[in-house]
């Protein structure tokens, strides 16, 4: 009998419900069985076939040897959970999709760093803010030829949403850039020795009305099933 692969989706205990539900639905539509992973549960013993590291609060800067920002309330329990899973996935070849914060954490786990303010780190990186702009604003990214993201999308250029205020800075060990903006902001990364360890700075779960973004979840599910049909 056909069995759907179980995809662990990380989230904080009491926040980001809307984003989680959007990812949950994306996984269901792609043929997977979503499983929530939260800090308060016994997450280390979860049995999953694939992993999605979701978006949310800033990663604690101490994880990449930089000072914390003022009064910002970091979620250290979530950091611990996602560091555990990102490291396990990297070591064991578990198919992994990191979204926004998730992509940043993947880089940090590999020994990389982050820009705590993308607007201060890059020129022309002050994006519109607020709910309407986060919903409708799009920016163009440029995808590296023959990269994993290129194989998934079959495109060299793609318009994506923009909800992040931080960005990947120094790359971690074996981390490779898959896409950037014209201003240099990194929009997608992979791990060179991992079959599917993809971090994307944008949010495809909010764009699943378009086939090209659904395909990102479908490809993850394919790798989790061990079929890899999409590539």
**SS class:** alpha/beta
Main sheet record = 9 strands, mixed
Shape: globular
State the helicity in percent bands.
25-40%
Structural notes for this entry:
By secondary structure, the chain is α/β, with parallel strands linked by helices. Helix content is 30%, strand content 20%. It has helices spanning 17-29, 76-92, 101-109, 118-121, 131-136, 148-153, 211-225; strands spanning 6-10, 33-37, 50-53, 96-99, 114-115, 139-143, 157-160, 167-168, 175-180, 186-191, 197-200. Strands 2-1-3-4-11-10-9-6-7 form a nine-stranded mixed β-sheet, sandwiched between helices. Strands 5-8 form a two-stranded antiparallel sheet. Helix 2 packs across helix 3 (101-109). The chain is globular, with a radius of gyration of 16 Å. It starts with 5 loop residues before the first strand and ends in a 6-residue tail after the last helix. The mean pLDDT is 94.
């Amino acid at each position: 009998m056909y069995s759907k692969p179980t995809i662990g989706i990380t989230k904080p205990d009491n926040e980001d419900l809307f984003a989680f539900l959007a990812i949950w639905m994306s996984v269901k539509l792609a043929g997977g069985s979503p499983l929530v992973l939260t800090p308060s549960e016994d997450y280390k013993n979860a049995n999953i076939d694939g992993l999605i590291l979701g978006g949310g609060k800033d990663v604690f800067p101490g994880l990449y040897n930089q000072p914390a920002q003022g009064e910002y309330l970091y979620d250290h329990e979530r950091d611990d959970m996602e560091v555990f899973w990102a490291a396990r996935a990297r070591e064991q070849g578990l198919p992994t999709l990191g979204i926004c914060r998730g992509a940043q954490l993947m880089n940090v786990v590999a020994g990389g760093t982050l820009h705590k303010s993308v607007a201060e780190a890059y020129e022309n990186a002050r994006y519109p803010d607020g709910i309407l702009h986060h919903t409708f604003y799009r920016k163009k990214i440029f995808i590296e030829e023959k990269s994993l993201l290129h194989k998934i999308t079959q495109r060299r250029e793609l318009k994506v949403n923009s909800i992040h205020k931080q960005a990947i800075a120094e790359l971690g060990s074996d981390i490779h850039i898959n896409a950037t903006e014209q201003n240099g902001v990194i929009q997608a990364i992979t791990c060179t020795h991992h079959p599917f360890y993809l971090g994307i700075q944008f949010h495809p779960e909010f764009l699943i009305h378009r086939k090209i973004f659904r395909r990102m979840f479908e490809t993850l599910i394919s790798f989790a099933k061990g079929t890899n049909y999409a590539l």
